[in-house]
Amino acid sequence: MYNLNVRQIEFINLLLEEKQYKPIKYYTEFLNVSDKTLKKDLIIIEEYLNKHNVELDKKHSIGIMIKDTMNAKLILHRVLQSQESKNNKISINYRRIEIIKNMLTDPHNNTSIQKLSDKYYVSKTSIVNDFKYIEEWFSLFNLKLEKTVEGTQINGLEVDIRRAIASLLFEYSKDGKNKNTIEELAIRLDAITLNALSELFEKEKIIYVNRLLLDLEKKYNCRINDPYYINLLTHILISMVRGSQGRKIYKKSDIGKFKPEKDYEEAALCINKINRDFGMTLDESEVYYLYQYFVSFGLIKDMSGKEDTVLSELDCLAINYRNRITHCMEEILQVNISKYQNIMEKLLLHIRPMLNRMKHDIHISNPLINDIKEQYPILLNVCKAATLMVSFDMKLNHIPIDEVGYLTLYYQLGLEENYATRKRVLVVCHSGYGTSKLLMTRLKRYFPEFEIIESASASRMMNINLEEIDFIISTVPLELEKNSYLLVSTFLNEHDIKNISDFLLNNKSKHLRLTSSTKLIGEYLKEELIYFNKEENEVKKQINRNIKRSIIFNPIDINRNLKIQLGFCKDECILGLSINDIENNEKQLTFYIAMENVEIMTLILKEAFNFNIKEDYANYLMKCKKEKDVKQYFKLNGEGGMKMEVDLAKVIQKETIKLDMKATTKDEALKELTELLYDSGTLSNKEEFLEDVYYRETLGSTGIGNGIAIPHGKSKFVNKTSIAFGKTRSDIKWETLDGKPVNFIILFAVTESDKNSVHVRLLSKVAARLGDDEVCEALLGAKSSEEVYEIFTSSDEIQ
After folding, report:
1. How far is CA 709 from the centre of its chain?
2. Are 296 and 353 in contact (CB under 8 A)?
3. CB 450 within 8 A of CB 441
4. 284-297 and 341-359 helices cross at what angle (nearest 10)?
5. Which of 342, 461, 510, 614 is deepest in the core (most CB within 10 A)?
6. Angle between the 6-17 and 24-31 helix axes, to the nearest 10 degrees?
7. Which stretches does DSSP call E strand in 733-781?
8. What are the pLDDT digits (tens) for 709-768?
């Protein structure tokens, strides 16, 4: 009986299509293999064809050809079709999973590139690439590939090998090759998980262990939650495979005296039953292994019925852990989750066995982790930070990301509940009572979650307390300083409904991020630990070198603009910052935080998490080139918070805007603009103020490029913080970042009292406008003071 591989079948099909002699080289190009490989195949093919009375003719230096191809096709067609159906090509991913499975489950399996190349009928280069992937995959479980003269095999601890086998369940699930299901298990497990299990283990054993668990559930009148059920089922199957091969997971000295415990007794009963039914000799280490799972999942319960039992040590630990991690989450996110008692109770039910798993070093896989990373990346990372801090403070083991993923889902429920509360809406209409009622009715129909406080005319809004309003829906344009509003038609058409829906969706995605000052960052940030455009590893080395410590940092990725590296350090509070350029002219901030005080660390995380570098007031930070400027920025931002925000309309006067300046030099320009400020009453002494402006010019260039300069003077001779704008008739020389002359000058005059607060915000506001090329173009082309005034004071309200 001849079994051809895929390549050999393709070779025969190519031969059948040819009606003349072709050299071997001709076929190698089609099949993408060497001449040597095809010559070996040809020996097998010739024997195969002879068996079916088909003749292969070979002529030296000319080539090969099947004689009487028409008749040969009739003979071989059905046979080759049957062979092809048996030898369907498998995917690269599936091949790699198969190689991993065989290496993990067969302790005596020494494989090699040549063996695998022959087995899967692929090139050695493909197998070499497979090994690169496999080696990286094994490293996730602290396993290594060991290459010897006999071949390549796995090297690592038994506990890590079993963890790797368990995770294969989800690798098979991702591939989705096997479409068959096991009917006996279909009620409890989804088809994808069943298929994955059947790829790893024998069907009879899967059904057996499932029945074993169902009997335990019945015995203890409980139901094992699905994630625990899948993990427990998988690990018992692994025990049956590895344990029967003599691969012990624990040494005898590692096993304590647990025999009187109910969990240990039940584990022993299960292992003894498996030994009896399958003729295995699983020893006490497998009993201990299963015992740990029973304890960590809380499966085996005391059936005495004592409901008034005092909370165990584990219960107290779980409650404390839940409360502390929830406090961290609430502090960072600035929301109240603990008020939802049902969520807190469910969270406790998960945390109790989770802490037990950490105690016994038992890892469960989370089949949803990739979806959680994709759907809730920010919340997952905040939760990761919270578990790191609380586990460190309570001296508990590190929580793996799979477990953090489960916790994240509970906190997401809390956020959904938080956001689902009714929105207090004010409707502003024309004075007509009928039209306002019509709009309110339609709003309630399409947005039942709205609590419409009242309907008011624009003139009555002055008498309404807007602090208690979430947002405003209006049929008339409004002039509001703080509250955002949505402009709609009286009849609330489809376009209006979409705009409101988009607004709600946008705010839902933003509700995690609230504005926060940076008081603690300003206090703890060390100037010597501020870096510009340095690689992450280099920053870590420099920080450790600087503080003479060896801190292990854990990455917390909030978004593309904000990263946090979290570590722990006794007797010292470390806070560093790296500011890096990334694509699309954006900046990325990475905070390096290491300390022992978890409370302070949580508050610093709150400030960092809620710091939005895309806000206007952060633009100044993005332009900082020196470490001391960055330190100063966070310090000032912490002192003033949002109170440092400024209204450009209050510091810009149309009488200090001049678009036909006579100046032809830098000195003349500064004097001419100073004269404008003096005439408007801004300055008490123009000569002294000008001296302060010249002093600032000695500290660095104020020419920012694009033909614009922003000189500024912080002086006690300024009566009121103001800005003067001037456009020269011709270009004048100025020290600029792009080396080009300027013809538009913006002169800042800042009072002594404002120099440590408003000045930063003022520069930031103007810099935000000038960062837009269209704004610069409009500014240089302005024909009147009104145009310049409008460019810098135009509102950004939602319309």
Report:
1. 40
2. yes
3. no
4. 160
5. 461
6. 130
7. 742-750
8. 889 888 888 888 889 999 998 899 998 878 889 989 999 888 876 665 565 566 666 766
Please report which confidence band the pLDDT of residue 108 belongs to, taking 50, 70 and 90 as the band edges.
low
How far from each other are the two terminal CA atoms of the chain, in whole angstroms? 79
User: Does residue 167 lie within any of the structural domains?
Assistant: no
Separation of CA 97 from chain center? 26
Give the CATH number, domain containing residue 59. 1.10.10.10
Neighbours of 777 (CB within 10 A): 11
Domain boundary among 371, 391, 419: 419
* C-beta of residue 713 within 8 angstroms of C-beta of residue 683: no
- 428, 476 contact by CB (below 8 A): yes
Residue 447's CB is within 10 A of a number of other CB atoms, namely 17
What is the CATH number for 531? 3.40.930.10
Do 682 and 662 belong together in one domain?
Answer: yes
Helix (H, G, I), strand (E, B) or coil at 459: helix
pLDDT per residue as tens digits for the range 132-189: 888 888 888 888 888 877 788 888 888 788 878 877 766 665 554 444 444 555 556 6
Domain co-membership, 82 together with 105 = no
**CB 278 within 8 Å of CB 240:** yes
Closest Cα partner for 461 from 482, 434, 480? Answer: 480
The C-alpha angle with vertex 385 and arms to 364 and 516, in degrees rounded to 5, equals 150
| Of the residues 36, 54, 86, the one at which a domain ends | 86
Q: For position 291, which CATH number holds?
A: 1.10.1790
Dihedral sign of CA atoms 166, 172, 174, 179 in order: negative
Residue 305 lies in a domain: no
Count of structural domains, the chain:
7
Structure tokens at 402: 């799979």
Quote the CA–CA distance of 753 and 760 in Å, as a whole number.
13
Q: Token pair for residue 746? A: 């913006």
**Amino acid sitting at position 201:** F
**Token reading at 795:** 């509102």
Catalytic status, residue 235: no
Distance from C-alpha of 266 to C-alpha of 232, rounded to nearest angstrom: 14
pTM, 2 dp: 0.56
Model confidence pLDDT, tens digit, residues 285-299: 888 888 877 877 666
- 3-state SS, residue 535: coil
Structural domain that includes position 107: 92-156
- Give the tokens for residue 195: 């298929």
Q: Among the options 235, 350, 712, 759, which is catalytic?
A: 712
